[in-house]
Every structure is written in C-alpha cells, then in structure tokens.
Amino acid sequence: MKKESNSMSNTNQQLPLQGTGGRPPRIIISGGGTGGHIFPAIAIANALKNIDPNTEILFVGANGRMEMEKVPAAGYKIIGLDIQGIQRNSVWKNVMFPVKLINSVRRALNIIRDFKPDAAVGVGGYASGPLLYAASLKNVPYLIQEQNSYAGITNKWLGKNARKICVAFDNMDRFFPAEKIIKTGNPIRRDAVNIAGKHMQALELFKLSAFKKTVLITGGSLGARTLNNSIAAGLDKLIAADVQVIWQTGKFYYKQIIEKLGEEYHPDIKIREFLTRMDLAYAAADIIISRAGAGTIAELCMIKKPVILVPSPNVAEDHQTKNALALVQEDAAAFLADRDAEAKLVDRALELLNDRELQKKLGNNIGKMAMPSADETIARELLKIINNN
Ligand SMILES: CC(=O)N[C@H]1[C@@H](OP(=O)(O)OP(=O)(O)OC[C@H]2O[C@@H](n3ccc(=O)[nH]c3=O)[C@H](O)[C@@H]2O)O[C@H](CO)[C@@H](O)[C@@H]1O
C-alpha cells in the first residue's frame, strides 16, 4: 500500500488543472446517508475548490437522506436518486429495490450525459453504487474514498473498476486491489476542527460558565441510544459534580428526551438535537464522550482533547470497535464497551475530569495520529486521474 505524506509533493502542485478541452475540471461526488459519508465528501469538494475555484462540482445523493439538506447548506448543488439500502428487517420493504436500482442507474446515466464529468468520486452510501456503475459504463474514471477499516459489499465491488481507492486504515488489501490503495486518512471539514482561540465564543454560544468543566457528548451524525441512556442515568451525578454538559442526542432521540426531561431541564445540561458548529462544541469541551465513527475519530485526532470512546456494536463487522482500538493501542483514547456504558460511563467521565495527567497523555497521543491533509491529497489524486485519462 502506498502511503501519502501529509504535505503536497512538487509533482502534485505542478498539475495543470484542466478538464476535457482545456475547461476547468467537472467532478461528480456521490454518496451519503449519514454524516460519516457526507462530511468527507464536502471536505473533498472544498479541497478541489481551494485548488481551483473554477472546478465544477455536482453531488449525487439519495432522496430523503441527510445529504439532500447538508450538501446545499455547504453551498453545493445536489441531485437526488430514488434509491434506498436493502432493509435487513423486512423482506416486503425490499420488493421495490430492484426497480429502484435500475431506475437509479438510468437516472445516473442521464446525469453523466448532461454534466459531462471528467471524473467521479464515491464516498459510500446508497447513491455511490448506481452513480459509479453508470460512470464505469460511460468510461468516466472514478476514485473511491473508504472511511472505515472495513469495506462493505458495494465498495468492494466498485473497487474493481476504480482508478484509486483512498483509505484511512492499514490492511485494506483484504478488500481492494493493493496497487490501487493509497492511505490518505479521512478527509475532514477544516472549519469543524479549527478551534484555536474560540473558547470564549463557544461558551457564549452554548451559554456555559467559564468556571465549570464541560463534557461534550456526541453520538455521531445520528446520535446514539446507549450514550443518551447512559447520560440520562447519570445526570444527577453530573449536576452534583458541578459539571456542565453539551449533550448531542441525535434527531431520532431528541423529542423523546425533551418530552421526558423538559426543554429547560437544568441550566448546566445543554440538550441539542444536532450540532451545526462542531468547532465550537469541540472548543468548549474539556473532555469528550463519543461513538467511534471514522469521521469523528479523524476530527478528534485534530482537536487533541481527551476522549472516551464507546463504539457502536450495531455496525458492519464491528468496525467502530476496530476504529477505537487503533487509538486505544496508542494510549490515545479511553475505551468503554457499549454494554458497560449505562452503569459506568458517567463515573469514568468524572474520573477523567479529575485526572489531569491522564487528560494530558490522551490529548498528546491522539494528536500524533492526525492526518490533516487527507482532503487535499485526495483532491490531487483525482486531478492526477483526470490528467492521465
Ligand atoms: C451508525 C453508523 O452507521 N455509523 C457510521 C457512520 O457514522 P456517522 O455518520 O456518525 O459518522 P462519523 O462519526 O464518521 O462522523 C460524524 C460527522 O458528523 C459531524 N457531526 C456529528 C454530530 C453533530 O451533532 N454534528 C455534526 O456535524 C461530525 O463532526 C462528523 O463530521 O459513518 C462512519 C463513516 O463511514 C462510520 O465509521 C460509522 O460507523
């Protein structure tokens, strides 16, 4: 596996930025479903625009999914395909799947015909499959960005025709042809991790006291039931310890938590459905409790704060545990199994808040694992693909 350095090579910098016929490059970025796919996609788009503001970028997502809201909010155009994933819990819900898939490939072929991209990117999620399949039918070269230490069936299959596969973990040749793999790290939105000098602004936004310790709880882009239950079970202890909390519940759980606790439960407990300013949430936090999604982990490495990871056990091949252990092995994060969280999480958080030495060690070590230029490295790889085509 080839490993890219974090700084750009000269060869890369001298790349002419041109699409077909000398016009600026046109690129389709496809995928989504959760923040873990969408935000890396936006980071790659931002890096492409940073290299050449004239680059034309079109996103292709799945109707009804988070990308249809988050991508326009980031300033990019998106077209939705009428595609869903296989529903494992119900055979009936899958009856329309083959029809939707065929229609999505047709629609993707039309999008490619109209937009005339020089290259495409797939970040995983429902829309990547039909779009990249259509790209291969139309001889449009494409790159895959795999965030996790485990690749799903669709990405493995798409990997066969990909020009490059950008990954964040070692040993990915279990899933993809070794000669196509580049270890770039996961692309992160730079504004989400730019926390320098923002502590006061963060305290103001969340109406927090400068004299109390702050715990940030994040369950990833959708929130996490176990983290919510664990915090709810330990609220009295947190309040008694005079700790303030930014508690991101996730969209699915917010209403029921608010119904139970009330909007203004306690002035030190800030309950939020979704955090649009992750930078300020990270800036406010003394310690962070988090799921172990790949994108969140890449961000945590950049902000260098002490973290307790509680990986979700409900993801393919238990990949969040692998994501978390990669850090734990380097003494870069504390770890708590999902099954122990309700009984132990709040106590562990309070212990960590009182242990300055451990906080320092974890913060230093997690910072060593950051790969800050993944977005730019991937953007340059894509431009190389266009150049060589
Ligand atoms: C349940 C599930 O399937 N999780 C997967 C999903 O996680 P998920 O969608 O949670 O994604 P990640 O943890 O990788 O990233 C979450 C992203 O959402 C942002 N954010 C989060 C909360 C919030 O309130 N505001 C906000 O902006 C974070 O800053 C981060 O950029 O994709 C990841 C990357 O493929 C996988 O590793 C996870 O296993």
TrEMBL record:
The keyword Transferase applies. Its EC number is 2.4.1.227. It is found in: Cell membrane. It catalyses: di-trans,octa-cis-undecaprenyl diphospho-N-acetyl-alpha-D-muramoyl-L-alanyl-D-glutamyl-meso-2,6-diaminopimeloyl-D-alanyl-D-alanine + UDP-N-acetyl-alpha-D-glucosamine = di-trans,octa-cis-undecaprenyl diphospho-[N-acetyl-alpha-D-glucosaminyl-(1->4)]-N-acetyl-alpha-D-muramoyl-L-alanyl-D-glutamyl-meso-2,6-diaminopimeloyl-D-alanyl-D-alanine + UDP + H(+). Residues 1-17 have a biased composition (Polar residues). Belongs to the glycosyltransferase 28 family. MurG subfamily. Keywords: Cell cycle, Cell division, Cell membrane, Cell shape, Cell wall biogenesis/degradation, Glycosyltransferase, Membrane, Peptidoglycan synthesis, Transferase. Gene3D superfamilies: Glycogen Phosphorylase B. Pathway: Cell wall biogenesis; peptidoglycan biosynthesis. This is UDP-N-acetylglucosamine--N-acetylmuramyl-(pentapeptide) pyrophosphoryl-undecaprenol N-acetylglucosamine transferase. Cell wall formation. Catalyzes the transfer of a GlcNAc subunit on undecaprenyl-pyrophosphoryl-MurNAc-pentapeptide (lipid intermediate I) to form undecaprenyl-pyrophosphoryl-MurNAc-(pentapeptide)GlcNAc (lipid intermediate II). Residues 1-26 are annotated as: Disordered. UDP-N-acetyl-alpha-D-glucosamine binds at T34, G35, G36, N148, R189, S221, Q320. Its main location: membrane. The gene is murG. It comes from the Bacteria. Signal peptide: none annotated. Residues 214-371 form the Glycosyl transferase family 28 C-terminal domain. One of its GO terms (molecular function) is glycosyltransferase activity. The lineage of its organism: Bacteria, Pseudomonadati, Bacteroidota, Sphingobacteriia, Sphingobacteriales. It is a peripheral membrane protein. Residues 27-165 form the Glycosyltransferase family 28 N-terminal domain. The keyword Transferase applies.
